[in-house]
Amino acid sequence: MKVALFIPCYIDQFYPKVGIATLQLLEKLGCEVVFPQNQTCCGQPMANSGYEHITGDCTKLFQDNFDDYDFVVSPSGSCTLHVKEHIPLKGKIYELIEFITDILKVESLEGEFKHKVGLHQSCHGQRGLKLSQMSELNAPFFSKPEQLLKNLKGLELVTLDRKDECCGFGGTFCVAEEAVSVRMGQDRLADHLKNGTEVLTGGDTSCLMHMEGIIRREKHSIKVMHIAEILNQAI
After folding, report:
1. Structural domain that includes position 195
2. Is 110 inside a domain boundary?
3. Number of structural domains in the chain
4. pLDDT, tens digit (0-9, with 9 covering 90-100), for 35-71
5. Going by C-beta distance under 8 Å and a sequence separation of 6 or more, which residues neighbour residue 120?
6. What backbone torsions phi and psi does residue 43 show, to the nearest 5 degrees?
7. pTM
8. Which of 55, 82, 103 is the last residue of a domain?
């Protein structure tokens, strides 16, 4: 299967290893991966701040880069959701875990990762892309990220007290409401610390970046890894 890889700005600039892990993971799963060289921002930061009317050039450039592909894959739930809702594509865009479970039909992965892992389910992924069930709903539970993590040898998934609570990042919210954002991140980390998380993971590097900043400032021992990095390393 041939797929085009969309790497969001902050991953390209600050966490290139996440992009590399995503590429390698998709190739291990049998995909032919293409990286359009002229891709840039999808326009999400502007749109989330109320300036979608000035994102026309971002939209056109995104279409120019990705319209020729049936499948576009990205290791970011928030950027994927923005494209799904605001940028018409001839093909379809999928968040990485969504693509692996729903399109490649991978039910489990064989590999090894000997750590206690705490999963952060970001709001865009959970409530927008439906990657896992929301705890406030009286409905059967499912979690696509947990589905791929739980069968890795040596990996222990940490049970959190509030498993789908927001970390407080919220894109430009963390700039406009810095104090509230930081306190929400501290509360989210307290749950992981209380329950013994060794490696904190998730599908949105933006959320992980926010919590990693707090971890570093407060000198906690938790390591932060995108779920693509864990899966790629494990298999």
Report:
1. 116-234
2. no
3. 2
4. 999 999 998 888 878 888 888 999 999 999 999 999 9
5. 167, 188, 200, 201, 202, 207, 208, 211
6. 100, 5
7. 0.95
8. 103
